[in-house]
Amino acid sequence: MNKSSPAKILIVDDTAANIALLTEMLENKGYQISAAGDGEKAIKIAQHITPDLILLDIMMPGMDGFETCRHLKKQETTKGIPVIFISAKTEVDDLVTGFSVGGVDYINKPFHEDEVNARITNQLQIQQLNQQLATSELHMRQLLINYQYQSERLQQIVDHVVDGIIEITTLGNIQFANPAVEKLFGYTTKELENINFSELLAEPFASLYGKFFETSLLEGEQGYFSGNKIFEITAKRKNGSEFPIDFSFMKISVGKEMYLAVIHDITTHKDKEEKFRSLSNIDPLTNLANRRYFEEVFAKEWLSSRRNNKPIAFIMIDIDCFKQFNDTYGHQAGDDCLTQVSAALKNNIKRPSDIVARIGGEEFAILLPDTSEEGVFKIAEQLRTDIQALQIPHSGSEHQVVTISLGIAITKVGEQYSSSDMLYQMADEALYEAKHSGRNCYTIAADTTNSNPQSEK
User: For residues 382-411, b (16+ Cβ closer than 10 Å) or e, as one string?
Assistant: First the structure.
């Protein structure tokens, strides 16, 4: 919206009389008016002219006002346009629905010219302010403080934003906190008055905050919190619980020097991030670790074993004759088989440092750091017998049930191995030997210990 040109307003109503009445009211105020008789036309017009404000009737044939608003908010070119709903409906459910789909205000029918003009003026002013604030985050924070002392309307914005906004003196004490701070931290407004902001931070950030003010008083701003940046730190509530926040901190001047802190709770974001990270590490069919995550863990454990001179065992596993199983029983049965085998494998891996993963179609891998040869062989044999004990029918196997073959490679203390890939290859070669030694057995890589196949057939 350009100050030098009239604001563009799009009126959407299926009743021509309403459009005519609103057009007359608003053109008298100098606004540039466009109109549409239904939701589909409104969307096209909005995409073409990008109005500064939309007055949108709720009850329309075809696409109603709520649905029209949803479409507008999904489009990149129109999602930022404020929408004021116009309707004779005043039920709470309608109001809630309107706000939930992206509306910013309501104008009730029949229209009252003063109310219409006031609500439109208010939203256009807010829209103009938002455009100014969007130009720069630093400018936004400064503008917020300047208007705080000049505008009651802007004060209302401060009171209703979900981010915490705090004014801090040059000694580090809280001078002002908006209501969001009370909700975030559990303190009352009175409790927040003149306490040091460090009390809202968890360690080590509380100490870093204190040092920042000590050095800023003596030597000028420097240290962790210097500069107009956004920091991801840990905050502390009144009850002692901690939570992650994005924290921006800057010096401002409103008659006297002070600092402005803006706090955004990122708990939900972190939870989603952690859930996504967890899901990205899991094979969706078997709920075991996937190949990518296994290789990450393998690389870390390999370095740790080299650094601490500890052994590490790698077990490669393959379901015997699995292609014939799929061909005979179908892919759904194959998936069920993989799920049962995976659960049995996982049941034998007890320590937090151990990991079992699905690394291919019917291939699995197990990593056992700092485990004795005897312990590795015991686990391998238990895995083999547990899978056979599942008694999953397999007419293509000489055992008539699903079995597995295992290849084992173990590093020895004091011996040098060129890379983790070497251990991987040794386990793979041992698995190949087990497959060609009758299956349903485990074989130990020749370079690590006795390589004779071990099984109970």
Answer: ebbebbbeeebebebbeeebbbbbbbbbbb
**pLDDT tens digits, residue range 67-101?**
999 999 999 999 989 999 998 877 888 888 989 99
Please check whether residue 364 is in contact with residue 431, taking contact to mean a CB–CB distance below 8 angstroms.
no
> In angstroms, rounded to a whole number, what is the distance separating the alpha carbons of residues 134 and 266?
21
| Angle, in degrees to the nearest 10, between helices 92-100 and 65-74 | 20
Q: Cα-flanking dihedrals φ and ψ of residue 151, to 5°? A: -135, 120
Taking a C-beta distance cutoff of 8 angstroms, is the pair 180, 261 a contact? no
Structure confidence by residue, pLDDT tens digits, 43-71: 999 999 999 999 999 999 889 999 999 99
CA distances from 306 to 11, 377, 417 (A): 72, 22, 9
3-class DSSP assignment, residue 227? coil
Residue 299 tokens, joined: 């690389």
Neighbour count for residue 176 (Cβ, 10 Å): 17
C-alpha Rg value of the chain to the nearest Å: 34
Q: Sign of dihedral through CA atoms 335, 336, 339, 344?
A: negative
87 Cβ neighbours under 8 A, 6+ residues apart: 57, 58, 59, 65, 94, 106, 108, 109
What pTM does this model have?
A: 0.45
Length of the chain: 457
Contacts of residue 176, defined as CB under 8 A and 6 or more positions apart, other chains included, come to 165, 166, 167
> Do residues 407 and 382 make contact, with C-beta atoms less than 8 angstroms apart?
no
> What letter would DSSP give residue 86?
E
Show the beta-strand stretches assigned E in 281-410.
312-319, 355-358, 363-369, 404-410
